[in-house]
Design goal:
The complex is a heterodimer of chains A (552) and B (426). Chain A is mainly α and 552 residues long. Chain A is 67% helix and 5% strand. In chain B, the strands form four sheets. A seven-stranded mixed sheet of chain B has the order 7-6-8-9-10-14-15, sandwiched between helices. Classes of the chains: A mainly alpha (552), B alpha/beta (426). Chain B: Keywords: Signal.
């Protein structure tokens, strides 16, 4: 009898492979879920709400979240946090909540309440708890409300600032309760600001109290404070109205100053990009006199090198840049040496042919990249330490990636100047560029120096590519976007003068950024170009022309 | 000796010539006019593959009218005048029955006179600015009223947006769309001071001061949104800069009309999460038709990570409608197919029926989605019914009274309903 049963089972298994399959697939999941069932449960008082969360439609989620916030306290933060970032999932089989985390490039799921990794769970077993902008906004505030009592003063301060725009009765009551006992000075100040915002808009308070509050507000640069003051200027009470107007005027003056600084930074940042892109050209074109139309492609090769380096070390994106910089220098540099040896050397003294030949090389390199990497742009990730911004005050913040690139461009410039001034290679380069025949007569291997100079210029273009990969798209056309600007900078600065390139890059960057808000991006680019054409008419040798015999 | 060579030469030419007519007789040629090199290759090469896949499937089903479909692929290389040359070549040299092609409006405008002169037939699969209707073109992408206007309604009604930034790349599609949007916003009572318009060149990479302007414009205490017609890869540094300057999608959402799954597949989507896009199709929409289409596409590309997008769906609908129209007409003759096309119905991949209107525009559903961290869209809003495409916008004074109707008695792509005149042209 038992044999027969076993046989029947076997037959069934053979006949219904699909059902069998489903069964075996279900088994480990059920097991995995079972082992975590005890630990991964929400507290009993919110369990029904959590269940609702997994069943409701997107537009019905907000009331559920509000109830959740009302019935519970700090324990809600992990749920809210995961949901806000779109990392909250539930297991289809038993509706338990899990959080997705990324560990060494792998996607893993943890029980929301058990904090235990669930290796048996795969994406197919899960469904995401959806979230949209309205919910995200709500969650952000809800978290801030809980964080008002957090241990870290920075978190508390961020929470108060977050809530400035959403001061409801409950929040004000909480703040009034917390304010007197707040130990941290900075947090207390921000809390005071929030309370002053509330006081200023209370129509039942005496004018003098409200005006004092407005005076307190006039010292702040917070955007929400400005909005509050603006609404106060629409009020009927003339005393309040004029006080608010004075406060606004006071703030506007300070904001204006910071705006100017902001624009200056934008200009410097654009200048640093121009400097990086053109500094290699300043050597190949400026010092050697070779019109290298493939310079942009050297930048592109550097950017693609960054991409390949990141591909090879996917778990160490934060450090990949440090590998990419020398790698890009070597790749672009050796391609540069190759181009010089194979093509440019044979066209020495024929600028027009050099121009055409290097233009052809640029097209070949572009198509080569298209064939190898596809015509689609490649994704280069930014290291985490380069993302975000350094907030100095609410109206003035510097984006970190631009700040690093600004510093980096100056460093590259300095190193290059040192190489040219202090090393024997630099001495040879300067000798050859000043008087080729005389240098040759003195025993300088001009052919070797030419190749090395071209390699140096190209290698630096490659380094520029690493920096640009952090700012713009890495694609086959990357170089084309920068070649015109690079020539513009070198010609404007004065051919053969590195300092000129520096000054030209930053002045063009700053000029463009100050023009842009007034004229728009399209017109500002045109105006800068027109200015350079006129300038070159007046001073054909650029800002810093070479003097003496070297000018010949 | 001489005679012999002559004979063999004749025999040779004969041998090569004779099979040709018979080959032509049992095949139908389909032209594919998408850039495979240059800047537009990023977007257009996908559509070429889509058409090839659809042709392969149709042939597997037994072809069309008992004949095999043969693709003729040419590369206009993102070069607008070359589009016209290649179209001429396809029609007069290769004798194709239909062309699937173009992406940018400027390439379509370049092909249009050739199509009208040689009486060719083309399907255009990309969302565009409208303001055109040709007897020889069927527009299967979205017109402004099927993408831009519903998106603005969503912003005003659902998100309570009262200030708008219209940011676009400086060329015909963004300029025309923004003109329509500005007129529409004003008709909705949004004052001019609450609308900021900004244009940037193709491939803009330095967004610092523009984003800082947007931030300033958007932090006046009134809910602000950006409507972006920024094209192509300039979007990546734009979103990056938004994130770097601390503007999140909750503060100032960006609604894009040119950012789809394909564009998102090559970039880090973390800074984009929560920003919006308006399309007629999202890969994430859960229907059996869509699932099948995605599966076929991944199999065809041999790439489990291949994504689908809106212009692909438009190509899919256009191709299938053409197949049905040819079946109905019983011939590939352009005039007969053009007549049979009007009123053709075909199921959308997102549900519902697409219907070809008298103005050569499709009726389609409109979807608004939020970008997710996996590069897909989560639908947050959609129209209850399909929206018929409007060839001439009702919000522009110059085209308010114009309609397109390719059925008798009007038979015109630019018909003034007030003066009752067809001004020819398109």
């Amino acid at each position: 009898m038992r044999h027969l049963l076993a046989f029947c089972c076997c037959l069934l298994g053979l006949l219904l492979p699909l059902a069998h399959c489903a069964e075996t697939k279900q088994a480990p999941l059920a097991q995995g879920a079972e082992s975590n069932t005890t630990a991964n449960q929400p507290p009993a008082n919110i369990a029904p709400l959590v269940l609702d969360l997994t069943q409701a439609k997107l537009n019905k989620l907000l009331p559920i979240l509000k109830q959740l916030e009302a019935v519970s306290d700090e324990s809600m933060v992990p749920l809210f946090h995961a949901m806000m970032h779109g990392d909250l999932y539930f297991i289809k089989a038993n509706r338990q909540l899990v959080v997705a985390t990324e560990e060494s490039g792998q996607r893993l799921y943890k029980g929301l309440y058990s904090h235990v990794l669930m290796p048996s769970i795969s994406e197919d077993d899960l469904k995401k708890i959806r979230v949209n902008n309205r919910l995200r906004g709500y969650l952000r505030n809800a978290i801030a409300r809980v964080h008002l009592t957090a241990a870290s003063p920075d978190v508390r301060e961020a929470a108060v600032r977050e809530l400035l725009a959403h001061l409801d009765k409950d929040t004000i009551a909480t703040l009034e309760r917390l304010y007197p006992n707040e130990p941290n000075k900075k947090v207390k100040e921000t809390m005071g600001l929030a309370l002053a915002m509330n006081t200023a808009s209370q129509t039942n308070l005496p004018d003098s109290t409200r005006i004092a509050a407005i005076d307190r507000l006039s010292t702040s640069l917070e955007n929400d404070v400005r909005n509050k003051l603006t609404t106060l200027t629409y009020q009927d009470n003339p005393a309040i109205k004029s006080a608010a107007q004075t406060a606004l005027k006071h703030i506007a003056q300070r904001v204006e100053r910071f705006n100017f600084l902001n624009q200056l930074f934008f200009g410097l940042s654009l200048g640093s990009v121009l400097l990086l892109a053109s500094i290699g050209l300043a050597i190949t074109f400026g010092v050697m006199g070779v019109i290298n139309m493939a310079h942009g492609e050297m930048i592109m090769l550097g950017a693609y090198t960054t991409y390949v380096v990141q591909l090879m070390m996917p778990n160490y994106i934060d450090y990949s840049i440090w590998v990419a910089i020398p790698a890009a220098f070597l790749v672009s540099g050796s391609v540069g040496v190759l181009i010089e040896r194979l093509v440019i050397r044979h066209l020495h003294g024929r600028p027009l042919e050099t121009l055409l030949a290097t233009f052809g090389i640029s097209l070949i390199l572009q198509q080569l990249v298209r064939t190898i990497f596809s015509p689609l742009n490649r994704q280069v990730s930014s290291p985490s330490w380069m993302s975000g911004s350094w907030e100095i005050n609410p109206v003035f913040s510097l984006t970190l990636n631009r700040l690093y690139i600004l510093a980096f461009s100056l460093l590259v410039f300095l190193v290059l100047v040192m190489v040219l001034k202090k090393t024997s290679l630099g001495l040879n380069v300067r000798a050859v560029s000043q008087n080729r025949n005389m240098a040759k007569a003195m025993g300088v291997r001009t052919a070797w120096v030419d190749a090395m100079t071209f390699g140096l210029g190209s290698g630096i273009a490659g380094i520029a590519g690493v920096a640009l990969s952090q700012l713009t798209n890495v694609g086959p056309n990357l170089g084309q976007d920068y070649i015109i600007n690079s020539f513009m900078v070198v010609v404007f600065g004065g051919v053969g003068n590195l300092l000129g390139t520096l000054v030209a890059a930053f002045s063009l960057g700053i000029a463009t950024k100050f023009l842009e808000p007034v004229t728009g991006a399209v017109l500002s680019a045109i105006l800068v170009l027109v200015f350079i054409i006129l300038f070159i008419q007046k001073r054909p040798k650029g800002l810093f022309p070479q003097k003496g015999r070297a000018a010949e | 000796m001489k005679m012999k060579t002559l004979v063999s030469a004749i025999a040779l030419t004969g041998a090569t010539l004779i099979p040709l007519p018979s080959l032509a007789a049992d095949t139908i040629k389909v032209g594919v006019l998408h850039s495979l090199s240059g800047t537009m290759a990023i977007s257009e090469s996908t559509l070429k593959d889509t058409v090839l896949m659809l042709i392969k499937e149709q042939n597997a089903k037994g072809g069309l009218l008992g004949k095999k479909l043969v693709p003729v692929v040419v590369d206009p290389a993102s070069n607008w005048p070359l589009f016209a040359e290649k179209a001429r070549e396809l029609i007069s040299k290769d004798h194709v029955s239909v062309i699937f092609g173009c992406w940018t409006s400027v390439s379509r405008k370049s092909v249009l006179p050739v199509l009208e002169e040689l009486n060719g037939l083309m399907f255009y699969p990309v969302q565009f600015e409208g303001e055109e209707s040709s007897k020889n073109i069927f527009y299967t992408g979205a017109a402004p009223n099927q993408q831009a206007i519903p998106a603005v309604n969503y912003l005003i009604n659902d998100l309570g947006v009262k200030r708008f930034v219209l940011a676009g790349t400086d060329y015909v599609y963004p300029r025309t769309t923004n003109k329509i949007l500005e007129a529409y916003l004003k008709s909705k009572g949004i004052p001019a001071k609450d609308i900021m318009v900004n244009y940037t060149p193709f491939g803009q990479s330095d967004w610092q001061s523009i984003v800082s302007q947007i931030k300033k414009f958007g932090s006046q205490g009134v809910k602000t949104a950006v409507i972006s017609t920024i094209n192509g890869d300039a979007n990546v540094p734009f979103y990056k800069e938004l994130a770097n300057q601390g503007i999140s999608s909750e503060d100032i959402p960006v609604v894009a009309f040119s950012v789809g799954e394909q564009e998102l597949s090559g970039i880090d989507t973390k800074p984009l999460v929560g920003h919006l896009a308006a399309w007629n199709y999202f890969e994430s929409v859960d229907t059996p038709e869509n699932e099948k289409f995605i599966k076929e596409w991944k199999a065809y590309k041999h790439d489990p990570n291949a994504v689908t997008n809106d212009p692909m769906e438009a190509t899919y609908i256009g191709f299938n409608m053409w197949v049905d129209a040819v079946k109905k007409a019983g011939t590939t003759n352009v005039d007969a197919v053009e007549k049979a096309m009007i009123g053709q119905k075909f199921p959308n991949l997102t549900g519902g029926m697409a219907v070809m209107g008298k103005n050569h525009y499709l009726s389609k559903p409109v979807l608004i989605g939020e970008i997710q961290d996996d590069g897909q869209f989560e639908t947050v809003w959609q129209t209850d019914k399909t929206v018929p495409g409007d060839a001439w916008s009702n919000y522009l004074p110059s085209s308010k009274n114009i309609i397109a109707d390719w059925t008798s008695p009007i038979n015109c792509g630019h018909y003034n309903t007030v003066t009752k005149q067809c001004s020819g042209g398109n």
